[in-house]
Design a protein that fits this description.
Aspartate Aminotransferase, domain 1, Aminotrans_V_dom, Aspartate Aminotransferase, domain 2, single chain, PyrdxlP-dep_Trfase_small, amino-acid biosynthesis, cytoplasm, 7-stranded mixed beta sheet, binds pyridoxal-5'-phosphate, 2 domains, alpha/beta, transferase, globular
């Protein structure tokens, strides 16, 4: 019979490239003629050495990561890095600065505070319900901070720093979990970039940290699993790494290269996002609340203003194979996430559905 195409608009874990899923299926019983599956091979095997080295090199190529930056693989997700960053880097002033751009910025601040680090919010757009982004004040208060924490893409609120705030006085630690590899950024604008894999990069279980080598130093009394210096000296192999997740991320990186790299996928991400924003901006039923200049390419919240009707849209969409469109409870309404693996046909199907839904009322 006919099978309806399914499109997954989840904010994460999220859509993976189809060719990567198919490659994993082919590889699974017998990886590279080894007679073993990726689920069974040793992280000390030459097979895994190659997987790790290629993943690092492909990421280096894709993001043009210079040699004075290291690529590390951790476990613990973005949340693990909310602790790792202050533990490793807030060692001089025991104080960090924050731009309060929403939920995940607050989570990062709360985790640092829990570890005894002073957290100062330099600007907040909470009063605007985070529908626009906070920016650095022209003069940063005189106290000293070990770094500025920035949430580059706000997954829940649907905002993105398309231009990265800069302050020569402040090292910059960036949470890029939800738009990693979705659009080009200059790695040299940052001291640390981190991202959980489960949106644009691969399965949950591995967290990438890209860090300027010069700021990495040994710190006493750190849990080994969060220790940047230790992981750097051990090439992320201090203990058993998430072997499968690193392998799958490596396949996604090769897929991304075949899409024209970050520049190629950025072009398509812009076209995809523009299609939905254009529909929403002309719709008499749906709207997106975000300030245009700050709109995310990857996470697009929208609503009718009537919670019951929003729920009906989510349910009807699911019946048509358009999955996981429910908005985060703090924003309400709907949210469509267009990560790198979302094909244009998925965006077209969504926009057609919304158009049709509006026409039928
Ligand atoms: N930071 C951002 C921007 C996120 O979107 C998320 C999860 O959605 C996190 C951090 C938390 O990541 P994890 O679930 O990997 O700890």
């Amino acid at each position: 019979g006919l099978t309806m195409p399914i499109y997954n608009f989840s904010a994460g874990p999220a859509v993976m490239p189809k060719p990567v899923i198919e490659q994993i299926q082919r590889d699974l019983p017998n990886l590279n003629g080894s007679g073993m599956s990726i689920l069974e091979i040793s992280h000390r095997s030459s097979l895994f050495d190659t997987i790790l080295a290629e993943a690092k090199q492909d990421l280096r190529d894709l993001m043009r990561i210079p040699d004075d930056y290291e690529i590390l693989f951790f476990q613990g997700g973005g949340t693990g890095q909310f602790a790792a960053a202050p533990l490793n880097l807030a060692t001089l002033h025991h104080a960090i600065a924050l731009l309060d751009s929403g939920h995940w910025a607050n989570r990062a601040g709360a985790e640092a505070a829990k570890l005894g680090v002073a957290v100062t919010t330099l600007a907040s757009t909470q009063a605007d319900h985070y529908t626009r982004l906070p920016h650095l004040p022209t003069t940063i208060p005189t106290e000293s901070y070990d770094y500025l924490h920035l949430t580059v893409n706000n997954t829940i609120e649907g905002t993105t720093y398309h231009t990265i705030p800069q302050s020569s006085d402040l090292p910059l630690v960036a949470d890029m979990s939800s738009n990693f590899l979705a659009q080009p950024y200059n790695v040299t604008d940052f001291d640390v970039i981190f991202a959980g894999a489960q949106k644009n990069l691969g399965p949950a279980g591995v967290t990438v940290v890209i860090i300027k080598k010069a700021i990495v130093k040994p710190v006493d009394h750190l849990p080994s699993m969060l220790d940047y210096h230790l992981f750097m000296t051990k090439n992320s192999l201090y203990n058993t790494p998430p072997v499968f997740a690193i392998y799958a991320a490596g396949l996604v990186l090769k897929w991304l290269k075949a899409q024209g790299g970050v520049a190629g996928i950025y072009q398509r991400n812009q076209e995809e996002a523009a299609k939905l924003y254009d529909f929403l901006d002309h719709s008499k039923l749906f709207y997106n609340p975000v300030h245009h200049a700050d709109r995310s390419l990857t996470n697009i919240p929208f609503m009718t203003g009537d919670a019951q009707l929003d729920a009906e849209v989510v349910e009807t969409a699911a019946q048509e194979g358009l999955m996981n469109l429910k908005g985060h409870r703090s924003v309400g309404g709907l949210r469509a996430s267009f990560y790198n693996a979302m094909p244009m046909t998925g965006v077209d199907a969504l926009v057609n559905f919304l158009h049709h839904f509006e026409q039928q009322r």
